[in-house]
Design brief:
heterodimer; A: five-stranded mixed beta sheet; flat; disordered C terminus; B: mainly alpha; Arc Repressor Mutant, subunit A; 2 domains; 9 helices; about 70% helix; globular; disordered N terminus
């Protein structure tokens, strides 16, 4: 090799030298893990100083001791996993230190690899951030998750993929910009009357259905949020028909007033915080589909009508609120 | 490169001497982790690769029949396979742009601070063929001799020397081109 080649190799060695941030010494944890792995493979150290060279051909008794030691080490690691399993923890969250986990995994014990464990941890962080609505945290957790999932082996990735996809979908939804509030047409001034709580039911439900209303939960509010309902809320004309007891009531949920409804999907029923026990009666609100009027409300009401039928528990008063379109 | 040949460490390690294994591990670690970091571009991945390499070495020690001189080359041969496995796992079946691993690259500040000549050599090195890159990395990052690199690569020493000469010649051309451009 010429002097030029040697100099070029030196230059190359300098150019390719590892970054200063890269630790060139094994950490204590790595070292302990390695020692544990060696011990598990070869058995515990033999008696005497480490300088004693163990003969290649051991006696039968020595081999037996080594085998017993290896089995003991294996049993210890198995016990850790079994204990964790017995306490109901999955292998993905087995509380093992990373080095021990690495060794146990390398030995073929039933524990997740460190990479898979990291991915599970990242998933937890991501879910936490999504729940907290912390978009910055979601982004950070996504980045870390990406890196850790990329380190998984193929079978591990296949195993984690459904969970990861689910979490990523949720995170993507959390990161998506909030939909612009729908324009709400002015509504007639609501009368200060008692406001029976109404719950939105699917369009197929009959208005006469007097089954107890399901309490509106946050999840319901989120999932049953069809945009057409907002349009229905904006109908300028509201007709209230009062049945037998002649108690006229106009639906006037303050939350449904223009500009006061943060959730345009649930017109008239956007009070998820209201306890269901306070409802004086079973209430059904039916949002008619554009194709027809399944509630059987008076004719002349076009598509998109909203009918609210209130049937008190005592059966004394039934209030029907129909919202007709202006056109 | 620190040799472990003269101390009989390999023989002791083969017999299960933990002290010998610890010494071998400490000695091999810097070069293994540097090499793995070059190949994988990530410190954590590099550490994992070293752990896996040593685990495989311990498990396969009974099949190691060479003398002490070849131990480093044998380790790096295992490390190459480990890295190849990891790279296969990294770049297979990932949704585009979602889970793909991004190797560490120097940031703008680091690039500014980096020696210009060194940056030129790195840029020229990046233009070599992957096989040439790996060979030269085994030489200058792992610190293997040509014969050891040949062992690690599973090739004949003569062929490796020739390949190294060609790689260096091409690297020199690229470096000169880079300096002319600069």
């Amino acid at each position: 090799m010429s002097a030029d080649d040697l100099r070029l190799l030196d230059d190359l060695a300098e150019a390719l030298s590892p970054p200063p941030s890269l630790a060139l010494e094994p950490s204590a944890a790595e070292f302990e893990a390695f020692e544990a792995m060696v011990a598990a493979h070869f058995g515990p150290p033999m008696a005497g100083s480490p300088l004693v060279v163990v003969p290649l051909r051991r006696s039968r008794r020595a081999r037996s001791i080594v085998r017993t030691g290896a089995m003991a080490a294996t049993i210890v690691l198995f016990s850790a996993s079994a204990a964790a399993a017995a306490t109901g923890k999955t292998s993905g969250v087995l509380p093992l230190p990373r080095p021990v986990r690495a060794v146990a995994h390398a030995m073929g014990l039933p524990v997740d690899s460190p990479a898979l464990d990291d991915a599970h941890h990242d998933l937890g962080n991501l879910r936490k951030a999504v729940r907290a609505g912390d978009t910055g945290g979601v982004r950070r957790a996504l980045t870390v998750l990406r890196q850790d999932v990329s380190r998984l082996h193929e079978n591990e990735r296949r195993q984690a993929q459904p969970e990861v996809e689910k979490a990523v979908t949720a995170a993507t939804a959390a990161l998506a910009p909030a939909p612009a509030p729908a324009a709400v047409a002015p509504q007639p001034e609501p009368e200060p009357a008692s406001t029976p709580k109404a719950t939105t039911t699917p369009p197929s439900s009959s208005a006469a259905d007097t089954a107890p209303a399901k309490p509106a939960t946050a999840a319901d509010t989120t999932t049953s949020a069809p945009a057409p309902t907002t349009t229905t809320t904006a109908r300028p004309t509201t007709t209230t028909t009062t049945a037998p007891a002649a108690t006229a009531t106009t639906e006037a949920n303050p939350a449904a007033t223009p500009g006061g409804n943060p959730d345009p999907a649930n017109s008239g029923s956007s009070d998820p915080s209201a306890p269901p026990a306070e409802e004086p009666s079973s209430t059904t609100t039916t949002t008619a589909p554009p194709s027809g009027n399944p509630a059987g409300t008076p004719t002349g009401q076009g598509s998109g009508d909203t009918t609210t039928t209130t049937a008190p528990a005592g059966g004394g008063t039934t209030t029907t609120t129909s919202t007709a379109p202006s056109s | 490169m620190q040799s472990c040949a003269t101390e009989g460490l390999v023989e002791r390690a083969r017999a299960g001497d933990q002290e010998a294994w610890a010494t071998l591990y400490r000695r091999a670690y810097p070069r293994l982790v540097s090499f793995a970091h070059r190949r994988l571009g990530n410190p954590d991945l590099a550490k994992d690769a070293v752990s896996e390499t040593m685990a495989r070495a311990v498990a396969a020690m009974h099949s190691y029949t060479r003398d002490d001189d070849g131990f480093s080359a044998w380790l790096f041969g295992i490390c190459r396979h480990v890295i190849a496995d990891m790279q296969r796992a990294l770049y297979r079946g990932l949704p585009d742009g979602l889970l793909r691993h991004e190797p560490d690259v120097p940031g703008p500040a680091e690039a500014l601070l980096e020696n210009e000549e060194r940056a030129g050599v790195r840029a020229a090195f990046a233009r070599l063929e992957p096989e040439e890159q790996e060979l030269l990395e085994l030489r200058v990052v792992a610190g293997l001799s040509s014969s050891e690199a040949a062992l690690a690569l599973g090739k004949q020493p003569g062929a490796v020397r020739m390949a190294q000469m060609r790689a260096l010649a091409r690297l020199r051309i690229f470096v000169e081109e880079m300096s002319n451009v600069g």
